[in-house]
Structures are given as structure tokens and as C-alpha cells.
């Protein structure tokens, strides 16, 4: 009967996992929705009010004004919807940033369109968005910003419009992949140079005759000054990106690499005060990175998140077995499974405090609670049962939440498999290692820990294989070196 029940549970689980998981979008408060709505209204007014003021009041012109207003408003909401579709975890602050940048560009078009190149208006905001929210969101923003011009439209060369789209698209695509401030600086130099030569080729060499006269005028017909202005604005944008990161919660690749520096104070403390935990962290980084690479996830994010996932153990390092180094186990001394479970939960709570104190980005801080999810503390739960204590199983479960992304789910699986793989006999076969990995991962699945992670069955299979590959690399035998008669190495 027990076997039948177990089989039915497995079948039910497989059916449940066959359903396509849908990533739940971040909830936005009513106040934030109102702010976003008002900004979209302002964008529409900016795009259409000049048409109403400069044209005679008749039905045709009023209809044109309504049409322009509606187009701008709908375009703004399409931008928001597509951005959230591509990146469901966008926060309300980031959406406000997207529409505020669009509003700023529309106002600039209205006020400066006659004296400034559209390249300098659209490309810098595209760089900010691609750095913090990805290339797809930036491309959508560029599309809306490029086609939405205040009516009546400011006319400019069609070739210039083509150059604008190409340069802005290049910045959007490369901006989302750039991994250092130095690469950003290179981009801010090469894009204006590319724009200069493109305008020279497509618009005409006669436009740069001012070079011979040593003139320097910021005007729409002045190709060289347009490109120089673009370079200056992009350099200032790079300087302000850290401010945008702080205010709007953006997490750029460069910021991730800075946080992953092992000389950062929190990581340095972990290596000195909890060396066992630090060693465990490095091993998990290797497992998690390989798995994330295999499924095409965000490698920089998981490497950085893995480094910080156990910083909460700094509050009491000796209470965790990897830091005890053969000394007495405090859990044995108190002999109270419930208090021991509270200590384990405390490392998550304290970790979140450290994250707030050190101003870690939310996406990094999420690794601290989500890598434990609502897992049961099986060892202490079993100890409590042996003592015949009247207990509630929830006392022996972490508070959660369960993993909300593929990266935090991979870290949970790596955390569970690391100790088991390291404890395996060096002569263990690949089949035995894979069975151990599969058993641990399946236990997380049937416990519902991966339900919100959006991991597919195919990706879970790849994760198992990647963990096995890492284990095969670290368990290799060492050659025993021969020694001389006086026991010194030759």
C-alpha cells in the first residue's frame, strides 16, 4: 500500500511539473501605478500640446490632437507592458525610471530639437536602461522614443534617423553585455566616432567644411559638434550610472563584478571569521556557475549571490559544523532541537540584516532566504521526535520564501548537493554520484521548493549533469610523489 501511495505521489508530481510555469510579475502599489499613469499623461501632453496651440481650432485639428495624444499614451503603455513581459521582476521604481526618461526625452525634443542632434537625446538614456534592465527593454524604449516626436514634427534628414536607430540599437545591445566601467568608457568613445563617420558618409562631406575654418558651433547641421556632444553626454551618463543604481535599484554587470571582489569587507570577514563557511561558499560557487552556464542563466548574478548567501553565519560561526574544527558542538551542549532550529533560522535573518547594512542590491539579498526556501531542518526535527516532544513541523522549517528565480533555485540545489558530493568515497562511480544528486534534487522538487523557480524538466536534467561534471573534476586522485632517504621531497 505504501509503494502504491508513493507511486501516485510521484505521478501527481510529474503531472504538476508538466504544466508550464509562469513567472509571477512584481506587484506594483496603487500609488506607484498612479505616478506611472500621470507620467504617461505628461508624455502625451508634451507630444501633442504644441499641435493644439499652433493650429486653428477646427474639427480636423482637434481630431489630429486627440490622435497624437492617444498615440503617445498608448506607446508609453506598450513600452511598460513589453518591458514587464521581458523582465517580470522589474520594480515600480524601475518602471518609473523608464517612463521618466521617456518624458525627459520628449521635453528635450520639444525644447532643443532645433539646436541638438537626436543622437544626444536618445542614446544616453538607452545606455542607462540597457545597463540596468537589459538589452530587450532598452531596444523597446529606443523604438518608442525614436518614433514619438512632438507634433508638429521637427524635420531632420532621413539618413540621420537611420543612423540614430543603428547607433541606439548598438548601444542597447552592447550595453546589456558590458561587464566593466572601462568597457563603458570605450563604448562612449567608439559610438560617437562611428556616428561621426556614418553622418559623413550618408549625409555628406560638405557638412564638415567648418573644420577648415576652425569653427565650433553646436548645431544640428554641424556633424563634428554633434558627435562631440554625444561623447560628452555619454561620459556624463557613465558618471551618473552609480547614482541610478542606488536610487532605482538597478543591478549592472559592472556592479555585480565589483560586489564579487573577495576583498569586499563582508566577504573578507567571512573568510577570516568563518573559514569553513567560506570554503563551502567557494565550492558552491563552482557548482552553481557550471549549472547556470549550462542552462544559459545569469552567471554573474549567481556567482555574486552565492558569495553572499551564507553571510548570516557571521553572527555565530561556531554553531555551524563546517567552522567547528573538531571542537565541541554547541548544539550538543544545549540539547534542545527547537533552539537549535532557531539558530539555523537566525543565520537567514542575520544575513538579511547584513545585506541591508552593506546596501546589497535586492537581487543579491534574495539569495539569502531563497537558497533555504522553506526546507525542513531534518536532523533537528528527527532529534525532537526521538525525544518525544510535542512539536509542530513548521517550527523546523525555514521561513522562506521558496526560490523565485532560476538562479536562486540553482543555488539551493548546489547547497544541498555540495556536502553530499564532498562526503562521497573517492572510488565512487559516476552512477553513484548521479544517483545522489538526483535524490537530493528530487527531494526538493516533491517538497515544492522549485515550484516558483520557472525551471523546466530539461533544465533540471542539465543541472544534474553539470553537478556531476564538477564532482568529476574535483575528486581526481593525487599522485604520490617519491621521497629521498632523508624524507625530503626531490
Automatic annotation (TrEMBL):
NCBIfam families: HDIG. This is Predicted membrane-associated HD superfamily hydrolase. Signal peptide: none annotated. The keyword Transmembrane applies. The chain crosses the membrane at residues 31-50, 62-83, 95-116, 122-147, 159-178, 184-203, 223-244. GO terms for molecular function: hydrolase activity. CDD domains: HDc (cd00077). Residues 273-429 form the HD/PDEase domain. Coiled coil: none annotated. Keywords: Hydrolase, Membrane, Transmembrane, Transmembrane helix.
Amino acid at each position: 500500500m505504501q509503494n502504491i501511495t508513493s507511486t501516485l505521489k510521484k505521478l501527481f508530481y510529474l503531472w504538476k511539473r508538466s504544466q508550464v510555469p509562469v513567472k509571477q510579475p512584481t506587484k506594483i502599489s496603487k500609488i506607484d501605478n498612479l505616478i506611472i499613469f500621470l507620467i504617461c499623461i505628461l508624455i502625451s501632453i508634451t507630444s501633442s500640446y504644441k499641435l493644439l496651440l499652433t493650429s486653428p481650432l477646427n474639427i480636423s485639428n482637434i481630431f489630429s490632437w486627440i490622435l497624437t495624444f492617444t498615440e503617445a499614451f498608448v506607446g508609453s503603455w506598450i513600452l511598460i507592458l513589453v518591458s514587464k513581459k521581458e523582465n517580470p521582476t522589474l520594480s515600480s521604481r524601475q518602471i518609473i525610471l523608464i517612463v521618466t526618461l521617456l518624458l525627459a526625452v520628449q521635453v528635450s525634443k520639444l525644447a532643443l530639437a532645433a539646436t541638438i542632434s537626436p543622437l544626444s537625446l536618445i542614446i544616453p538614456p538607452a545606455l542607462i536602461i540597457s545597463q540596468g534592465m537589459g538589452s530587450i527593454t532598452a531596444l523597446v524604449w529606443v523604438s518608442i522614443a525614436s518614433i514619438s516626436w512632438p507634433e508638429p514634427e521637427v524635420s531632420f534628414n532621413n539618413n540621420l534617423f537611420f543612423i540614430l536607430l543603428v547607433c541606439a540599437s548598438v548601444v542597447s545591445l552592447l550595453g546589456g553585455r558590458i561587464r566593466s566601467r572601462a568597457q563603458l568608457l570605450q563604448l562612449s568613445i567608439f559610438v560617437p566616432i562611428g556616428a561621426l563617420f556614418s553622418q559623413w558618409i550618408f549625409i555628406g562631406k560638405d557638412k564638415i567644411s567648418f573644420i577648415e575654418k576652425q569653427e565650433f558651433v553646436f548645431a544640428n547641421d554641424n556633424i563634428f559638434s554633434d558627435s562631440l556632444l554625444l561623447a560628452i553626454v555619454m561620459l556624463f551618463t557613465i558618471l551618473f550610472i552609480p547614482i541610478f543604481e542606488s536610487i532605482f535599484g538597478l543591478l549592472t554587470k559592472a556592479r555585480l563584478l565589483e560586489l564579487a571582489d573577495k576583498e569586499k569587507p563582508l566577504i573578507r570577514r567571512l573568510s577570516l571569521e568563518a573559514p569553513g563557511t567560506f570554503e563551502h561558499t567557494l565550492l558552491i560557487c563552482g557548482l552553481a556557475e557550471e549549472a547556470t552556464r549550462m542552462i544559459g542563466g545569469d552567471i554573474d548574478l549567481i556567482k555574486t549571490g552565492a558569495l553572499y548567501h551564507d553571510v548570516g553565519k557571521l553572527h555565530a560561526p561556531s554553531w555551524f559544523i563546517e567552522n567547528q574544527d573538531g571542537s565541541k558542538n554547541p548544539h550538543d551542549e544545549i540539547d534542545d532541537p527547537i533552539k537549535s532550529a532557531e539558530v539555523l533560522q537566525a543565520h537567514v535573518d542575520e544575513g538579511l540584516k547584513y545585506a541591508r547594512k552593506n546596501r546589497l542590491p535586492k537581487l543579491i539579498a534574495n539569495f539569502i532566504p531563497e537558497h533555504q526556501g522553506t526546507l525542513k531542518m531534518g536532523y533537528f526535527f528527527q532529534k525532537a521526535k526521538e525525544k518525544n516532544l510535542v512539536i509542530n513541523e513548521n517550527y523546523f522549517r525555514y521561513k522562506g520564501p521558496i526560490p523565485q528565480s532560476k538562479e536562486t533555485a540553482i543555488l539551493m540545489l548546489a547547497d544541498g548537493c555540495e556536502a553530499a558530493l564532498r562526503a562521497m568515497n573517492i572510488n565512487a562511480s559516476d552512477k553513484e554520484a548521479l544517483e545522489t544528486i538526483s535524490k537530493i534534487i528530487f527531494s526538493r522538487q516533491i517538497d515544492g521548493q522549485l515550484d516558483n523557480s520557472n525551471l523546466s524538466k530539461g533544465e533540471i536534467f542539465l543541472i544534474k549533469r553539470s553537478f556531476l561534471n564538477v564532482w568529476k573534476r574535483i575528486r581526481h586522485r593525487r599522485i604520490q610523489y617519491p621521497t629521498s632517504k632523508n624524507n625530503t621531497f626531490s
